[in-house]
Amino acid sequence: MPKVPARAAARWRDLVAEIRRHDALYYQAAAPVIADQAYDALLAELAALEAAHPDLAVPESPTQRVGEGRDEAFPPHLHALPMLSLANTYSRDELDDFFKRTLKALDEEDDTSLEWSVEPKVDGVALSLEYAAGRLARAATRGDGREGDLVTANVYGFLNLPARLQEPLDLTVRGEAYLDRERFRALNAAREAAGEEPFANPRNLAAGSLKLHDSREVARRGLSLAVYALHGEGLPGRHTERLAWAAALGLPVLPVRACRGEAAVLAAVAALDAERGALPYETDGAVVKLDSLALQERLGATAKSPRWGIAYKFAAERAATRLLAIRLQVGRTGAVTPVAELEPVLLAGTTVSRATLHNREEIRRRDLRAGDRVWVEKGGEIIPKIVGVVEAARDGSQRPFVFPDECPACGAPLSFAEEEVAVRCENPACPAQLRRRLEHFASRGALDIEGLGRQWVEILVERGLVRRLADLFALRAEQLTALERMGEKSAANLLAAIARARTRSWRRKLYALGIRHVGAETARTLAAHYPDLARLRAATPEALQELADVGPIVAAAVVDFCGRESVARELDALAAAGFFAHSEPETAAPAAGAGRLAGRTVVITGGFVDASRAELKAWCEAQGAKVTDSVSARTQLLLAGEKPGSKLARAQALGIEIWDAARLARERREAP
């Protein structure tokens, strides 16, 4: 990007990497770590940067795409109509600006001439369902808006969803999968009775349930659907009429308010805000849409969001409770994070007993003391946080918190680096770090070691059976069966899962190592350019920053990781255990110079009737090509299917060779 200042380009790369990390946590891991408003602030900064430097506004930027990625464990599904995501707004002023933009775009002066709908914004997971001749044929997640994951078997088990409509119609139904409050409380009560960790919140549980491979377990969890749109031939011309018709067909529809003019919309939003605590499901806002489908079509949409609707996010619910203590927890990278232990309080439908404090500066800024009466709210209805202290309730018994100089887990001196807010334990043998590293190592997005959850990680470390990652591969059946509640079958299954971890792709192994700032997508980029450990260890910061997803912060983290003596010992132990010996690329590559596309950089765009995107990517790589997501001057070939979008225009402008579906089919038939 030669026209962009180096500092702006570096900031763009860092923002993209951070947003993608949060996308993976939210959509794939169902474990977000920031509130929606903080995430939207990152997107807003990225959009402003791209507005100032248009060369940065490439099609693969998060500002141009719906954030959810695909899960390769499920078959892909190309949406007939894109699944967009409503833009969020957090204040009445922003909502007023939305109305003004709409009036101007429609060339209207009187807001009372426009009719709107207002409905609850259910805190769930977007789905697209296709009914053929009245029968449920397919169900898919939103994915990246164009292509999602086919999860039909899991959707059949929803509590309120008919497998057959009242009429034999062909319809595309859009809705939100969710778990109601009563069901969520019952599931958590059962888990706690069994000594298991409770689920964090209904939204995360719904997202995780849809990605399960056991449809019977999904059915047991009892998800529901809230329909918010219909598409098909001969449908009514108003959104509210379509929802009424959907209800008549037997589809589950939530209450919707029809309004005329801005004042009526604001009153409906306020009424919904007042009653949300009594609703049987979690809702974090109100969805406002133009009721006329013809007007919706006139306004159109951006790459990510429709211009005819918006999600107004309610202020987070707040409750007062007692701060019992401030504890310190040690993460897998050694970061020591303070956590508030609270007197349990019901907040936004769940019981809150802990809240993150982020860092020592937040404790100082808020002057938090054990015994304080504090205000707690959920950021984005998900993450509990302390937002204030009731100073009038202090009686003199409270004392300021003093951050210790030693690690609470191992007693090693803590590092208070001036350039970082974080406090770190630099002891590589710290048991708390080991526990968190093991959890990440075994997680689904990394090595996916089934059966090695937090409970067993704690036991293995506590018993001294695992003192470093490599020790996992030396575990024996007799060691495991000696543990309480570990039978012979469970031990055999766990050992088999650990053995399978040796065969995971290099990309997943690289992500499993837990390098700071390296998420799943960045690990994919690194693995593609550095196909083995030796070459990654030799990489320089300058070379790393030439990669698409790598800025100075990520590059520095990779070089620091590879240069640490303690890391070197860990990697050598893993190598001795055979961990790296069996790493294979995502798709076997042909010999150098072999294959129809040997040495070429290829981009795939649009839909193809006779092959999925994943199948085409695998074919290209088997023919010696390198497949990337974005069109650039380095791209040598574009495979363009139906509805190729902006990538086709960019490729044409750059003079890049383009194959349409017919040419691609011919090349595939003739390829060896």
Give keywords.
672 residues; alpha+beta; Helix Hairpins; D-amino Acid Aminotransferase, Chain A, domain 1; OB fold (Dihydrolipoamide Acetyltransferase, E2P); 5 domains; seven-stranded antiparallel β-sheet; five-stranded mixed β-sheet; 24 helices; globular
Characterization of the model:
The chain has about 675 residues and is an alpha+beta fold. It has 5 domains: about 5-55, Helix Hairpins, CATH 1.10.287; about 75-315, DNA ligase/mRNA capping enzyme (D-amino Acid Aminotransferase, Chain A, domain 1, 2-Layer Sandwich), CATH 3.30.470.30; about 320-420, Nucleic acid-binding proteins (OB fold (Dihydrolipoamide Acetyltransferase, E2P)); about 430-575, DNA polymerase, domain 1, CATH 1.10.150; about 600-670, Rossmann fold. It has 24 helices and 24 strands. Strands 12, 13, 14, 16, 17, 19 and 20 form a 7-stranded antiparallel sheet that branches. Strand 23, helix 23 and strand 24 form a beta-alpha-beta unit. Helix 1 runs antiparallel to helix 2.
Q: Label the CATH architecture of the largest domain.
A: 2-Layer Sandwich
**Rg for CA atoms:** 26 Å
Name the poorly predicted regions. Answer: 587-593
Mean pLDDT reading: 85
Q: Approximately how much helix is present in the residues? A: 25-40%
SS field, number of helical segments: 24
Number of strands: 24
CATH topology of the largest domain: D-amino Acid Aminotransferase, Chain A, domain 1
Instruction: Sum up the overall morphology in one term.
Output: globular
Domain module count = 5
CATH class bucket of the largest domain: Alpha Beta
Specify the CATH homologous superfamily of the largest domain. DNA ligase/mRNA capping enzyme
Roughly how many Å apart are the termini? 38 Å
Strand percentage = 15-25%
- Structural class based on helices, strands and sheet pairing: alpha+beta
Q: Describe the main β-sheet briefly.
A: 7 strands, antiparallel
